[in-house]
Amino acid sequence: MKTKLLLFLLMPFLIFHKPVCVLSSETYPLAPSPQVPPFSPFPTSMSASSPGLVMGSEQQQMDSHKKMVIAIAVASTSLGAVILCVLCIWIYYTKFPSKSSNRKNVKNSDAEKGLASASILSKFSSIKMVGKKGCVPIIDYKQIEKATGNFKESSILGEGGFGCVYKAHLDDNLDVAVKKLNCENQFAEQEFENELDLLSKIQHPNVISLLGCSSNGETRIIVYELMQNGSLETQLHGSSHGSALNWHLRMKIALDTARGLKYLHEHCCPPVIHRDLKSSNILLDTKFNAKLSDFGLAITDGSQNKNNIKLSGTLGYLAPEYLLDGKLTDKSDVYAFGVVLLELLLGRKPVEKLAPTQCQSIVTWAMPQLTDRSKLPNIVDPVIKNTMDPKHLYQVAAVAVLCVQPEPSYRPLIADVLHSLIPLVPVELGGTMRVPQLTQQVLPADPPVDFNQ
Ligand SMILES: Nc1ncnc2c1ncn2[C@@H]1O[C@H](COP(=O)(O)OP(=O)(O)OP(=O)(O)O)[C@@H](O)[C@H]1O
Ligand SMILES: [Mg+2]
């Protein structure tokens, strides 16, 4: 491409250059002969001193001189233009090397975005960075110990399978969440590496931001942005039993989650399947903006044989085809999303214990009642019962029923789910519904910003 461009630009020079050569070789042989005087730039003085007989040949010579002067002028102008063009092209390619975008470059720019997100910490002068893992800043372990009060119990935000998450107060008044993983077993280490690798490349308003990492012996640390309202699981099934979440906020959380998933499935290159979507992995900030977290189990399309991976995830959220046959697709995430939607509607856990040895899944329990309009209002979470337009309730229930279909091909794509939810969420919360009577009591203080669907 560059060579063709260069040839194209050199064309005028070559065209103009040829006649100059012809002229000079025909009129003026390389070694001047006695009959032909050498070239002089002053033809007028020459004609004044020449006898009449040689006037014809002198006139010819003068014409030739003129032609050559013009040719030289044109040639040097062309050459100047060519040099200028080549210079411009060189500057363009050295300044904007990635302008010719292709899929490889999209991935690179994702990584750059990740780097931008991770570099939030570097703005804080007192935070000691000791290196980089990929493009993730490594934070001094001692500083993390200090910021969590030596991992004191009162700093614990929650507990997961591989360790606890702590609230940490870094200098410069920055509060963050610190996940401390005990990597004695190889799975924890793999999940740690996987989470860092994926989250460092992803930046989206509905995906948690990775700020840094650290390690000490077998302990691994991941530092995230702090989500002040904890997880959806804590909000729904914790001590407040969902009382902080009205109908509109619940629909907003469902919409945000769908936006995050759509980004993973359709905008990441290669696409990402989360594989562990559940209410404890949906985190809420001060304004109840929802963000997906926990990418330890997430896989990218093509990174490994999706039909031959270790069965992982959380009971109650696993799609039947994945649980029974290990078949994993983006529709597995859609199934888990359907279960979360049922939790939001019904306020029930995905798996309820009926007796010490007997469990019941929310899907099998709710399915017959979800499709019966007379029964549906009776199973809605008492906290939000009768607070919504019944039409909207039926619509959301229908979406949930579709998402948890046993046959994956009957489930919608997350993009379809997203578009069905947008009209049910007030504009102030990121949807398109106009609710004039909506007061600040049911909305967070400020509207959320910048939704990248
Ligand atoms: N960035 C964060 N901000 C605020 N709270 C968080 C943050 N990350 C996690 N938490 C809290 O810590 C809890 C534990 O998180 P963790 O991801 O370790 O386990 P989990 O998702 O509950 O379970 P599992 O290990 O099965 O995935 C979460 O449920 C949430 O309440
Ligand atoms: Mg989690």
Automatic annotation (TrEMBL):
Pfam families: PK_Tyr_Ser-Thr. The keyword NADP does not apply. SUPFAM superfamilies: Protein kinase-like (PK-like). GO terms for molecular function: ATP binding; protein serine/threonine kinase activity. Residues 1-24 form the signal peptide. Residues 151-422 form the Protein kinase domain. Belongs to the protein kinase superfamily. PANTHER family: OS01G0750732 PROTEIN, PROTEIN KINASE DOMAIN-CONTAINING PROTEIN. This is Protein kinase domain-containing protein. It comes from Clitoria ternatea (Butterfly pea).
